[in-house]
Every structure is written in C-alpha cells, then in structure tokens.
Design a protein that fits this description.
Strand content: 25-35%
Distance between the termini: 32 Å
Largest sheet: 6 strands, mixed
Low-confidence stretches: none
Shape: globular
Number of helices: 4
Helix content: 25-40%
Mean pLDDT: 91
Length: 154
C-alpha cells in the first residue's frame, strides 16, 4: 500500500481531527510491516485501510509517534488502525480487512492479537472475539478506549 493521501483522507472522515495521525507515523508502520497493511478499494476508490504490525506483551504503542523498531520475538499482531470511509460503512469492508490482518497474524505464528479500541468501537471488536484487558493506555487514545486482545491459538 502506498497511497497514504487516500489513507489520511479516510482517517479524517472516519475520526475527525482528534485522532489524525501523520503520513510520517503511518508511513513508518508501513515501512516496518508492509505485509500487515492493506487498502480496500471499490471501483478503484479507496474505501478503507488497516495498519498492523508485530507486537509483544507490552501495552499499546504511543499514538502519534513513529515506531522506532518492532520487537524481535513478537507474540501478537497489533492492529494499529482499521478505518472505513463513512460512505462504505455497512458493506463488510471492516470485516474483510480484519479477516486479512487476522490471517496474516495467524500465519506469522502469533498466539494472539491486540489493539486499542476507541470507546465507540469496543462493541465491534468484541464481536470479532476481542476482550478488554485491564491496562493503562498511553495518552491520546481518549476516554473509554480499551486495550483488547483475542487468542489465535491455544
């Protein structure tokens, strides 16, 4: 995926200005884990994206800060961001993107997946098999955000 301007436009439409991350932050994730990032298109137009990367048992990475490196022996796939343009909501784009990233994480041999769900997304992620963990989050994720995890294998 190399269309960061389209990703940034979807991000702004999905979240507004409060969670807008820079092209540098997202580009670094893409640079570190290109095999875990996808752009969804409909009729040649970007309608959603997912950015993920390997992660360890630590809490969540900071928001709005480029990752310096990935952990050497990651136990989890971390879904950094999955967003769908408002016009494409309800069309299965989010579930399809999550399926891709879940398959990547399982294929990599991770034992589970983690993410930070913003308050209004907790129910969606719970339907995908994620459960909240009792963990403090770095600043910027907002009130009601939860670190969540789901198993991929026993």
């Amino acid at each position: 995926m190399s269309d960061l301007p389209a990703v940034l436009a979807i991000q702004r439409a999905a979240y507004g200005d409060g969670y807008q991350e820079s092209a540098a932050v997202l580009g670094r994730k893409l640079e570190l884990a290109p095999q875990a990032c996808w752009l969804a298109q409909s009729d040649g137009i970007a309608v959603g994206y997912v950015f993920a990367h390997p992660w360890n048992d630590a809490g969540a990475p900071p928001l709005h800060a480029p990752l310096q490196a990935l952990p050497a022996n990651a136990a989890h796939g971390f879904v950094h961001d999955l967003a769908v343009s408002p016009a494409a909501r309800g069309l299965g784009v989010a579930a399809a993107l999550f399926g891709r990233v879940r398959d990547w994480s399982a294929g990599t041999g991770h034992r589970g997946m983690r993410l930070v769900a913003l308050a209004d997304a907790v129910p969606f992620w719970a339907r995908q098999g994620f459960a909240a963990l009792p963990a403090a989050l770095p600043p910027g994720y907002g009130a009601g955000a939860r670190l969540m995890e789901r198993a991929l294998r026993d």
